[in-house]
Design goal:
This protein is an alpha/beta fold. It folds into two domains: 13-115, ATPase, nucleotide binding domain (Nucleotidyltransferase, domain 5); 129-365, 2-Layer Sandwich (Nucleotidyltransferase, domain 5). It is 37% helix and 16% strand. The strands form two sheets. It has a six-stranded mixed β-sheet with strand order 8-7-6-9-11-10, sandwiched between helices. Strand 6 and strand 7 (206-211) form a beta hairpin.
């Protein structure tokens, strides 16, 4: 969370809310300056049991609504003029989502948007690329980007600021001096030949996005019905999971990701993918043993695949209680983190990438950017 001094009543102060399968999140920002006032994430586990029942549990709905009431208080105190609230995988799959949506409207004053997987992926892509131009040259995932062409898509572009994350606050692996020159920037018509690979591992779904930063609307998205909650509920039943369960989870993830690679139809993915959402952030925190979440230390941290593979093996072999003892593990994620890191590890295998660049700018930033363009 990052707080600032909101200007009550300003038309430029907007909020975005992501009602996800595992967490409910809020971003409040000023679209005229790029200043971020608040970022909040609360684990609400809205999608608990949805994969099996096809319905949102009453307890899960109540948890989510309680958090949204608190978020509305924050928004009112900041003088938010516009809000976009979106719901994703759990709501897409739930037959009783209207029960949730009607109460969300009563609380927030806006009816939540049910995003398709394609819409979710494109907004996440826009958020992920919004401040890549601040990557230091020393990063192993430094991309050669040309942002001079194409439309502006974000409040974080063109000198408007970037949520207070200066490049000096971004961590990269000690001693790394390699870089990836196999991912390219904008060129007319180039979206079909070159671009960036982004993976957004949610609770209920995982979006694979390949696109050119200058033409985000042309990005190709594949939304997979696997996420850290869904894969855990399907495959990882014991605590700790059995070897057979881990093997099954990896097989399910690998087959889904291989189908995504075929559907995208590209072979030039480069050495680095950009990873979004709680699983990826948690692995970053674990890798640098971060006791207290610090966005500036996690944002644009580059993690080698070998490190991710080690954490995948370690976490999948431990009980939830043992996982919680690791510095960097956030409470509430310990029971699903193994499923999430298995997806990330298998994605890097399927797409042949050696590095994962963590982006804490994601769908929330894409939503805020969309409101700055209106």
């Amino acid at each position: 969370m990052k707080a600032g001094s909101g200007k009550a009543g300003s038309n430029d102060i907007v909020a975005s809310i992501d009602i996800g399968t595992n967490s409910t999140r809020l971003l409040v920002a000023d679209t005229s300056t790029g200043e971020v006032f608040d970022r909040f994430m609360t684990i609400t586990r809205l999608g608990e049991g949805v994969d099996a029942t096809g319905e949102l549990a009453e307890e899960a709905i109540d948890r989510t609504l309680t958090v949204l009431r608190s978020y509305k208080g924050i928004m009112d105190s900041r003088g938010v003029s516009k809000c976009r609230a979106v719901a994703t995988s759990a709501a897409r799959d739930a037959s009783n989502r209207d029960r949730l949506f009607n109460e969300v409207r009563d609380i927030l004053g806006v009816y939540p948007e049910l995003l398709s997987g394609n819409e979710e992926g494109k907004l996440s892509f826009i958020g992920a690329i919004s401040d890549l131009h601040h990557l230091p040259q020393s990063s192993p995932c430094h991309f050669s980007l040309d942002m001079s062409e194409g439309a502006e898509y974000g409040y974080a572009r063109a000198g408007k600021g970037h949520s207070g994350n200066q490049s000096g606050g971004c961590a990269s692996p000690v001693g790394s001096n390699s870089r990836s020159d196999s991912l390219y920037g904008a060129s007319p018509g180039g979206a079909d030949k070159e671009g960036l690979l982004v993976i957004d591992i949610g609770g209920g779904s995982t979006e694979i996005i390949f696109g050119n930063p200058a033409y985000p609307d042309l990005a190709r998205v594949v939304s997979l019905d696997i996420g850290c909650v869904r894969l855990t509920e399907r495959c990882l039943h014991n605590d700790p999971p059995t070897r057979a369960e881990i093997k099954m989870a990896r097989q399910v993830a690998n087959e889904a990701l291989a189908s995504a690679r075929t559907a995208i139809g590209y072979s030039r993915y480069g050495e680095c993918l950009i990873g979004l959402a709680g699983t990826v952030s948690t692995i970053g925190s674990l890798a640098i043993q971060l006791d207290t979440y610090d966005r500036e230390k996690i944002h644009h941290l580059a993690i080698q695949r070998s490190v991710i593979g080690e954490w995948a093996d370690k976490l999948s072999g431990e009980t939830a209680a043992a996982r919680l003892q690791h510095p960097g593990m956030s409470k509430g994620r310990e029971d699903i983190i193994a499923g999430g890191v298995i997806i990330l590890d298998e994605a890097m295998s399927v797409f042949g990438t050696s590095w994962c660049l963590i982006s804490e700018s994601d769908i929330l930033d894409g939503l805020v950017g969309s409101m700055s363009c209106k």
